[in-house]
Design a protein that fits this description.
The chain is mainly alpha-helical. Helices cover 76% and strands 0% of the residues. It has eight helices and no strands. The longest helix has 27 residues, at 3-29. It is globular.
Length: 176
């Protein structure tokens, strides 16, 4: 098997096994669906470029998180300049899948999910990344591997991020 074929097979396998990571991180870093799709494409490009540098010293999912988080943070920094020149659009509401039959319950759940996503997006980039990784159920050790922090620093920083998120979410349930 030649190098090009191995590269393509690795990339395809990563997308099949971990494609949801790219979707989730693109939605976290880009509130508008069009922007999220653009960021998703950029994450795929960066992931493709990163395949040769993957030394298999970490799990593939750890590598993918690292590449996509860095891509999202870089994209967000460059977006600030674009946003200064563009008229903001209305906040998009992300529909949350729901088993409830009552439309009022679905609406309330959707509103709560939209408020949570807005609060997560308003966190500083480092805290936002930690919250997303924690919400994905990663351990402190896995988060440390992805971010390059120590496990203890992950714990401290994640506690601060959760406190910040809790503060931003205060009163949200009363507004709904």
């Amino acid at each position: 098997m030649n190098a090009a074929t191995a590269h393509e097979q690795t990339f395809t396998q990563w997308l099949n096994d971990h494609g949801a990571i790219l979707r989730q991180l693109s939605r976290v870093h880009a509130p508008e669906p069009v922007d999220a799709e653009e960021l998703y494409q950029e994450m795929m490009v960066q992931l493709w470029r990163s395949v040769p540098r993957f030394a298999e010293q970490a799990q593939a999912s750890t590598w993918i998180y690292r590449v996509c988080l860095n891509t999202g943070l870089t994209w967000q920094r460059t977006t600030r300049r674009r946003e200064a020149r563009v008229v903001p659009q209305a906040e998009s509401v992300e529909a949350a899948p729901s088993d409830e039959q009552d439309p009022a319950d679905r609406q309330e759940r959707g509103d709560l999910m939209a408020a949570l996503m807005q609060a997560v997006r308003s966190l500083p980039p480092g805290q936002r990344s930690l919250i997303v990784l924690a919400l994905d159920g990663l351990s402190y050790r896995e988060i440390a591997e992805i971010t390059g922090m120590t496990e203890n620093n992950v714990g401290v920083a994640l506690t601060r991020a959760r406190q910040n998120l809790t503060e931003k979410m205060k009163g949200i349930s009363h507004e709904l």
